[in-house]
Amino acid sequence: MGFFDKIKAGLTKTRDALNSTLGSVFTGFSEIDDDFYDELEESLILADLGVETSTKAVERLRKAVREQHLKTPEEAKTALKEILTDMLNVGDTALNLATTPSVILVIGVNGVGKTTTIGKLAKQLTDQGKKVLMVAGDTFRAAAADQLEIWAGRSGAAIVRQHEGADPASVVYDGIQAAKARNVDVILIDTAGRLHNKTNLMNELNKISRIVERELPQAAKEVLLVLDGTTGQNGLVQARQFKEIAGVTAIALTKLDGTAKGGIVIAVADALQIPVKFVGVGEQADDLMGFVARDFVEALI
Ligand SMILES: Nc1nc2c(ncn2[C@@H]2O[C@H](COP(=O)(O)OP(=O)(O)O)[C@@H](O)[C@H]2O)c(=O)[nH]1
Ligand SMILES: [Mg+2]
What is the reported pLDDT for 202? Predict the structure, then answer.
């Protein structure tokens, strides 16, 4: 299955939901009037674009309709797709892997899909011929490292782990030394996500960042925030907190296959102005997809 078909399949629930609301807006109105805009805004909010982003999108559509003299809802639909695509384009969607090694620190709340996303990334990167090392920085539960171990088996990526309860920063230190010794291309760092204690989490992430900065000052670094797409606007609240504490450079939205609220992707990109670089649409390695704004919007509407 190509990218477009796959993202389309992954977004089935969202598209079905949108079709029943948006679809009737675009076919139910013969002209573009205030009622049209009101119903449009309501269906965007229902798809979880959030009030702020939905309002902004509709404002921009009003402007486009005025300036481009659009007459029919069908023309407005095309313009809306352009606007949503543009709102999603907030930066480079490719990972910055410019140096050897480069570092991807993966953060996010418990259960959102961090470890799975790392495993999928490890598989994809090794398939591209890159040498990958995963660091089991979630030392809170041994199961997290075991889970990475399974992905190491699948992908041929190396893994560095310590005992349960070990200091995550020390595991990261070990991982970096191993990566240097073995000429690794990409270091993927897993972390625990216990957001219930913000200060602890902030200290832990700061400590990890300091080690990375000290040991690899020249390396290309990404801080990849993983968000669970099924949590809707809650994900946005989490994202704001992580943005504040960890200098997020990229976002992965997982579990879009399990939600009718895939519009959250647009809300997140727009509200945070951080590029969504990946979307997860299932549990297999190739279910993590590099993000293409235009294809996403086409698959959505
Ligand atoms: N359907 C689906 N499940 C996913 C996706 N990403 C992760 N999961 C599942 O979500 C659960 C939690 O994932 P995990 O990686 O352990 O989360 P972590 O606590 O953030 O490390 C696991 O059962 C994963 O298989 C996805 O894109 N789609
Ligand atoms: Mg995990």
Answer: 86
